[in-house]
Design goal:
The structure is a homodimer of 225-residue chains. Helices cover 42% and strands 16% of the residues of chain A. Chain A is α+β, with helices and mostly antiparallel strands. In chain A, helix 2 crosses helix 3 and helix 4 packs across helix 5.
Chain lengths: 225, 225
DNA sequence: TTTCTTTTTTAGGCTGGCCTAAATACTGCG
DNA sequence: CGCAGTATTTAGGCCAGCCTAAAAAAGAAA
């Protein structure tokens, strides 16, 4: 049986792998809120599992084997489906869903998964715009630029917002910066660390000034201009 | 923090207490699928918890303290709300809900509880007719007789069906023996171990022959005759 | 290349929750 | 009352998953 701890390790390895390429013991420890020594111990066990769940060579980081990736994607599918379900069916706001999904993802049955998937109409994205792996564990990974990377004058559609910080999510929701919103970079301060952004399609849409910590967390599919 | 194991012990103690009065180490061990020695160990810990969760004297069984009962009722409220939610909102059949609720009951937040409670309209009974403790943890305990205790000719309303055995639940559902169904004892075989029961309010309702293992699991609120 | 810093691993320990086997306490019957 | 049989507890262990402190390896800088 795969324990909750193992599921979390695999999920985190997967996410780090796709964010920063390499996965170090330290980074993993930090993300998991656990001492580095604990990570080393766990990685050894995962590498000795049969079938092997990770490729691990001491001092050289870790990566998922196909078996490990399969489990990671199952957990991620659970997580994102649950997030969307909580929002759609139970009225959660998008800054609340992550915490609850974190716990539920490890306990729901295949049956539960199928039922909410059907109820939601086989959705493709969760409330933050993260793609939901299909039943067959295929995962679309559209790689859009960060809002902070857009040039003045460019505009596009918000595709995804990083879901780490509930306070930031609440703030963004207030501004209307949610997936599918239309954004236009009205101006860019010198050195590019502050943007003036118009939210909405019209030219009289409200405009806001956003700093780097914000604009780095928003991903935009460039469209117009 | 209260662990899942502790929650299960307290829940089981509560249930045994209300089924058979006294709660023995062995009975608890069997219900939990655990060795008796393990139960002894856990009971000691629960009795040393501050606040104390159980009253425990070696060789003399165990009972819940108010603090222990509070936790037990919270878990039971979770369990039964979830059962009903799974049935009403996700289309589970009543023989499937118990297994899923068993896992979910330990992880949902207060918020989740409130939301499904509201969505279901503050329900009073779960799919098997078990009462759902209120938010304030008040629990109605209507104590109706078992179907097996009815005399020939008596009739009544099914109030509750024991939820232990999914196969039995499926069988009963097929016969239409579910909470609120009307039942009449058409006949009783010698020694009372087999009943002929009419399911439904009309006098031409279908009648079935039921043995003791079945009739002991169905509780009836006597009405007519 | 050698040294210094940072990262990672080893070593040793702890807790929770379970186990088996063996000892002991209750209980009911002769 | 005493003894057999059952119920319960003690003793000793195991495993998962975490910890800290200390050692060792890797990598950067001089």
């Amino acid at each position: 049986m795969i324990s909750e701890a193992v599921e979390n390790y695999l999920k985190m390895i997967y996410e780090l792998q796709n964010e920063t390429g390499k996965v170090s013991t330290n980074a993993l420890a930090e993300k998991l809120g656990v001492a580095p020594a604990s990570v080393t111990g766990m990685l050894k066990k995962l590498a000795e599992e049969r079938p092997r769940l990770v490729n691990y060579e001491r001092h050289h980081g870790v990566s998922l084997t196909p078996a490990g990736q399969k489990i990671a994607l199952e957990v991620i599918r659970h997580h994102r489906l649950i997030e969307l379900y909580l929002q759609q069916a139970l009225g959660y706001s998008w800054d609340q869903v992550d915490a609850e999904a974190e716990k539920l993802e490890h306990v729901i049955s295949e049956d539960f998964e199928d039922r909410i998937d059907a109820l939601l109409g086989q959705p493709e994205f969760d409330p933050h715009g993260d793609p939901i792996p299909t039943k067959g564990l295929q995962l679309a990974r559209p790689d859009h630029p960060r809002l902070s990377e857009l040039a003045a004058g460019q505009s596009g559609r918000v595709s995804r917002v990083r879901d780490d910080d509930p306070a930031l999510l609440r703030y963004l929701a207030e501004l209307g910066i949610i997936p599918d919103a239309t954004l236009t970079v009205a101006g860019k301060a010198p050195f590019g660390d502050t943007l003036s952004v118009r939210v909405g399609a019209e030219s009289d849409s409200p405009s806001h000034t956003l700093g780097r910590p914000v604009t780095d967390q928003v991903f935009v599919e460039i469209q117009g201009k």
